[in-house]
Amino acid sequence: MKKTFREKVMHKCAKLTSKHTFFKYPCLVYMTLLFGIMSIGRYFASNGRRYVGIAFTLLFFMSSCSFSFAVFSGQAGFVNTQEAYNAIVVDSDVALAVEKEVASSKELALEGTAETVKEYEDVEDIINADAYTLDDILEDTADYALEDSGTVQTEEELVFDSSDWRLVLVNKQHPIPEDYSFSLGVIKGSMLCDERIIADLLSMMQAAKADGINLVIRSPYRTDDRQESNFNQRIREYMRQGCSYMEAYKASSRVITIPGSSEHQIGLALDITSDTYIPLEEGFAETDAGKWLARHSCEYGFILRYPEGKEYITSIEYEPWHFRYVGKEAATIMSQENICLEEFWDEYL
Ligand SMILES: [Zn+2]
Hints:
By secondary structure, the protein is α+β, with helices and mostly antiparallel strands. The protein has helices at residues 5-19, 24-46, 48-67, 82-110, 113-129, 134-138, 142-146, 198-210, 224-240, 245-255, 288-296, 311-314, 328-337, 341-348, and strands spanning 131-133, 184-188, 191-194, 215-218, 269-274, 302-304, 322-325. Helix 1 (5-19) packs antiparallel against helix 2, helix 5 (113-129) crosses helix 9 (224-240) and helix 9 packs across helix 10. The relative contact order is 0.11. Bound molecules: zinc ion. Zinc ion is lined by residues 264, 269, 271, 322.
């Protein structure tokens, strides 16, 4: 009678063991492994169809889930429920933090605590040092001040184009496009921004002045390095208070935009306060200048980019001083309908 494979193996092992007792245990292990693998293989082979079916079903569910994920679906667009949005924001925070942790943790670990505190304060000092009123600015920007900033489209012809530079959407989920380019113009000294917004900026400052309000421009265009360094300073500050890197990263990303996702880096955002209220704090909203800007900035193409009550969409805390240029037509709609840029994209683009 013909021997099976199993019998052949057992026979060979028995022969080997009888000659050399040393091989007793290695043979036992070898046989157990071999027969184990064979029986698993046979089990799967006899249930093949069933497992292929299960694999396809799982694949189908996984692919349909990822395509229908709230923010990315055509229907839900940029804005969904608060819970869904929070989940996405947390996910993206963690993903970005993990990505950055490798690069930054070494660098952060090398620096002493006392030194980092000082550095952090220095950054605040630098930010506070760059602040110009309209009178300061006009010495350098006479050309822009005389320019006509363009006509406003009438209601019927309002059509928005997603490729319009004024409407570019930049946030945690939408980093600055790699091919985005623009020309910098000088506001005053080393203070720069996209040159196309300077005329409207000056018109706004002049109008505010006529109403007795001296707006002060601070921190317009920031280089990538500057944004990165501001962000890292904030992380260090949180870590000094006892947060882990991940916690510090998440907390920082709610008060400073993640490098690569800041509108300051494309020259379309400005921090604006007044000569009577300098700090970048929520209290600015209650000042005359804060109220004037909230009401009139849209007439000059600017919007309060991170409004109160929209934090779950913008994922940035309320910043009554941070203004973003979007053009007069879009700004007016956003102001009238009380919607932020993400919601505007949802409805109009
Ligand atoms: Zn800002």
